[in-house]
Design brief:
This protein has one domain (1-99). Helices cover 98% and strands 0% of the residues. The protein has one helix at residues 3-131.
């Protein structure tokens, strides 16, 4: 191989090596920065995961409280419905009792009036006969 070719080949190899060295250093720095980024991201994701877990626990507690409140409210509303039904039944019974008593009282007054009218008519007829 001619010496000029060897020298040219050596110079090309040196130039390529000189061009590759900065590229390799930059690649090394990029890898280090990427590793630092991954560590930072891992810490951030760990914090985010912990925050989400705490929020989920709070939501579970809030959901439990709301469920308890709604159960109590449901029981209260059901009891109020039963009280309303009982009041309606009492009202109906009272109304029927008053209506029945009113009819009976009216019947008694009507009967007493009829008896009094009968006795008055007897008395007036009897008085008319005595006058004659």
């Amino acid at each position: 191989m001619p010496i000029a070719l060897e020298v040219t080949l050596i110079l090309v190899l040196i130039a390529v090596a000189m061009g590759l060295l900065p590229l390799l250093f930059q690649l090394r720095r990029t890898a280090q920065n990427f590793d630092a980024f991954l560590l930072s991201t891992r810490k951030d994701l760990s914090q985010i995961t912990e925050d989400v877990h705490v929020s989920r626990l709070r939501m579970d507690q809030l959901t439990g409280s709301i469920q308890t409140y709604l159960d109590e409210l449901s029981t209260f509303v059901q009891l109020m419905g039963e009280v309303g039904q009982t009041v309606r039944n009492f009202h109906s019974r009272f109304h029927n009792t008053v209506e029945s008593a009113s009819r009976n009282f009216g019947g008694i007054i009507g009967g007493v009036s009829a008896v009094l009218a009968f006795f008055r008519s007897k008395r007036t007829t009897h008085e008319c006969e005595q006058e004659k």
